[in-house]
Amino acid sequence: MLAAQFSPGPDMLLLLKAAVNHPLKAGLLTVLGIVCGLAVHCVIGALGLSVLLRTNPWTFKVLLLLGAIYLGWLGCKLLLSLRHRPAAEDLSEGHKITPTAAFMQGLVTNLTNVKAFLFLTSFLTAGLRDDASSQRRWLLVGIILGQALVFWSLFLWLLKRPPLLAAYQRLERPLNAVFGILLLGLTTQMLLALRD
Q: Which SS3 state, helix, strand or coil, does residue 154 take?
């Protein structure tokens, strides 16, 4: 779970952006939004609805298309950010963002995160047999959500430490370029998968 949680993707990119650009409180609200999105994915997986999505190809294709569009938008936004802000700009003061906007960014990013959806529904579907008890299902969901909340909050808090933030700021532009290209590559893969 931790490897999937901290692998490059929309949620991690959003958390990095929140850590650099916003106060800790806004970042923690972003984490809460992401965890609420994960809760939706977990409920879908725990209830076995992933089977329905696999048997209805059009439903899966719509989800894939929406995810591809969103990931493409994030990739373009990262690449465009390279020309708008100098690398050495000090962002430690944080930009203004409303609590609702911080939460909604996390929620929408995770709900449209196809990687998170596919991983969690596959993980829960594979990890729980059809005859698994209700307690076991919800215990596993609770563990997933609890560890996401704790470790992402800790990650955000650590990035707010001046030495770690300074190191990230030095690497922000190259990382944005790499992740922007990776997201556009993933978008292309997803769009090609729609043709199958």
A: helix
